Amino acid sequence: MSAPRRCDQLAAGLACARYGRVVMTRSQRTEAELKAAARRLLLRKPYADIKITDITSEAGRAAGSFYRHFTDKEALMSALIDDFATKVHEQVVGRMGQDHTLSTRADVRAHVEAYWRGYREHLPEMSGLFQVAMLSERLRAIHDDLREWQVRAWAGHLEDLKYPGPARLTALSIICLLESFAFDLIGRVDRRANGLASGGSAGGMEASVDTDAIEALTGLLTAGLLGAAPPD
Predict the structure, then answer these.
(1) What long-range pairs does 221-230 form, CB within 8 A, spacing at least 24?
(2) Domain covering 3-18+74-226 in this structure, CATH number
(3) CB atoms within 10 A of CB 138
(4) Best CA proximity match to 125, nearest among 146, 111, 110, 109
(5) Where in the chain is the domain with CATH 1.10.357.10?
(6) DSSP string spanning 58-127?
(7) Domain ranges in the chain with CATH number 1.10.10.60
(8) Strand partners for 70
(9) pTM of this structure
(10) How far is CA 211 from CA 5, 8, 35, 130, 131, in A?
């Protein structure tokens, strides 16, 4: 199976194999409002401190509306993580096409940038999941599913590249690096930005840090996977 096709199937599988999520297409707006409310709350308090009634109150919805879309709070977190995975996949495919590879510096940068910008856009749920993955088996399973999807996608690219090292272990190290660096740096910048009075200054700081971080990760991974001076 080629890497592009493998990426498509893994992304689709991750989005479908969820834990108790109930999808009701006629109520998509309510579902989106519940998700948005949960994301706002995750910016203000730890996941463990958020109650379902907090989410429905934040969304301006009746308490019972939650259970028409999600069986519990963990199912909502699962849906939010699905959105992140879909965003990352769409960014890679949108920039590189279905038949993309990992053979040039530009290829590596596209993958790094997709993850980084997806993480920033979905910072509340990603940061929350990173912190609470050990609190329950289901939350850990959600975290492991997300990591496994990414590891398998990167490992597939490395196999196609004929990378001389262990593809899966190398892919795991890449994903752990991306996870930890994004969690630490994006979270820290976000906290600083929220403390600034000027929204423009905060946005400028984020853009500068994002560019530098993406370039730093791209350079590190390119040198390690492709050599010091691979072709673009």
Answers:
(1) 221/108, 221/112, 221/174, 222/105, 222/108, 222/109, 225/102, 225/108, 225/158, 225/161, 225/163, 225/170, 226/103, 226/104, 226/105, 226/108, 226/161, 230/103, 230/104, 230/105
(2) 1.10.357.10
(3) 15
(4) 146
(5) 3-18+74-226
(6) HHT--GGGGGGTBSSHHHHHHHHHHHHHHHHHHHHHHHH-TT--S-SHHHHHHHHHHHHHHHHHTHHHHH
(7) 22-70
(8) 21
(9) 0.76
(10) 29, 27, 28, 23, 25
> What kind of fold does domain 22-70 have according to CATH?
Arc Repressor Mutant, subunit A (1.10.10)
What is the phi/psi pair of residue 7, to 5°?
Answer: -60, -45
Encode the chain (232 residues) as per-residue pLDDT tens digits.
Answer: 444 444 544 444 454 444 445 444 557 889 999 999 999 999 888 888 999 999 999 999 998 999 999 999 999 998 999 898 888 888 888 877 777 889 999 999 999 999 999 888 888 888 888 778 877 888 888 889 989 999 999 999 999 999 999 999 999 999 999 999 998 888 776 666 555 434 444 455 567 889 999 999 999 999 999 985 445 5
* Per-residue tokens: 105: 């510096």
Contact 196, 188 (CB under 8 A): no
Return the residue matching tokens 């969304």.
59
